[in-house]
Amino acid sequence: MVRILDKAAVQPLRKFNLSRSFTIRRSPGRSRLATIQLRIPVSNAQPNRVELVATVGVKGVTGIAQILFRIFRDRTEIFNTQQGIESAASEQNYAVTFQAIDKNVRSGRHVYTVTAENLTANTRADVVGPISFSGLAVQTTT
Fold it and tell me: Which of the residues 28, 66, 85, 109 could staple to 60 if both were Cys, CB 3.0 to 4.6 A apart?
């Protein structure tokens, strides 16, 4: 049996939109893409898991950028994944989707943030939309 504890979702960019695009910062800098808050109740919430799903529309501008996506819980990194983004002679527009699971989260309010950073010098990739980020906290059975 699964019991829903909390859920949250944001969609800062609803569709592909070049006029609202922005460049992904070069590492060690990060571009913050979206933030949600979830609450885990004090009682009867263990064991639990938080299921997180993000989708980010990215366009390659120069070179082949390696983009590192990270998810943080309360400023602590809990997940990361990397995606290569080409800019010429092939695909240029990508919808990158990834999922993370955060297990046995302590009670209280938690802020989840998804970020992106470009790991490759002399390349450029832009966020062009859409951006969506959602979280579902559930109590699970042992």
Answer: 85
Mean pLDDT, residues 124-133 = 98
* 61: number of Cβ within 10 Å: 18
Q: How far is CA 67 from CA 20, 29, 70, 125, 126, in A?
A: 19, 12, 10, 8, 10
**Cα–Cα distance, 6 to 51 (Å, whole number):** 11
- Terminal-residue alpha carbon distance, the chain: 9
Residue 34 has a CB neighbour count (10 Å cut-off) of 21
Asked if the model's pLDDT at residue 78 lies above 90, the reply is yes
Range of the domain at 13: 3-139
Asked if residue 107 lies in contact with residue 45, where contact means CB atoms within 8 angstroms, the answer is yes
Domains: count for the chain:
1
> What pLDDT is recorded for position 142?
61
Side by side, the strands of the sheet bearing 31-40 are 31-40, 108-118, 65-73, 76-85
CATH of the domain at 21: 2.60.120.760
